[in-house]
Amino acid sequence: MNRWVLLEHKVLGGQLIDIHYDFLIEDQLDCLTWKFHEIPLLNKGFIKIDKQPNHRLVWLSRVEYQLSNNRGLVKRIDNGTFSCISHNQDSQELKIILNGTLLKGLLTINGDFCQLTKNN
Fold first, then answer.
1. Does the model's pTM come out above 0.85?
2. Residues 2-45: pLDDT tens digits?
3. pLDDT of 72-102, one tens digit each?
4. 10 contacts 18 by C-beta, under 8 angstroms
5. Please, what is the Cα angle at 28 between 27 and 34, to 5 degrees?
6. Is residue 47 classed exposed, middle or buried when 0-12, 13-18 and 19+ CB atoms within 10 A define those classes?
7. Which of 61, 16, 52, 22 minimizes the C-alpha distance to 38?
8. How far is it between the farthest Cα atoms of the chain?
């Protein structure tokens, strides 16, 4: 069905709050998943990301969820559908067109970085 979601993940550690974003795209039986250190803004350059283990499909439909074992709170901040332009697993490059509210355009993931640009 080509769904995706961007989740804000807040983890409380003592007096510090770690905030990052989990980006998941539907991939048949589960979701390809990346940790975004910030939200990619349209035409603002590359941002650092980290590939994560695949997540379960249930995360595509959750709006807000308190994780067990003090792993934090997850809250959906955007979601939508996508079209895959190219996916080269050998080079870790993925190009998809996102159709969301906050994230809309061509998202290029290349190794440990991603960039959101206008879809021409």
1. yes
2. 999 999 999 877 777 889 999 999 998 999 999 999 999 999 99
3. 899 999 999 999 898 777 678 999 999 999 9
4. yes
5. 20
6. middle
7. 22
8. 46
Is the Cα torsion angle 35, 85, 87, 115 positive or negative in sign? negative
Token pair listed for 33:
């998943």
Contact 32, 114 (CB under 8 A): no
- The type of residue at 5 is V
pLDDT, tens digit (0-9, with 9 covering 90-100), for 38-79: 999 999 999 999 999 999 999 999 999 888 787 789 999 999
Domain containing 45 equals 3-117
The helix (H) or strand (E) run that includes residue 101 is: none
3-state helix, strand, coil in the chain (%, to 5): 5, 65, 30
**What is the total count of domains within the chain?**
1
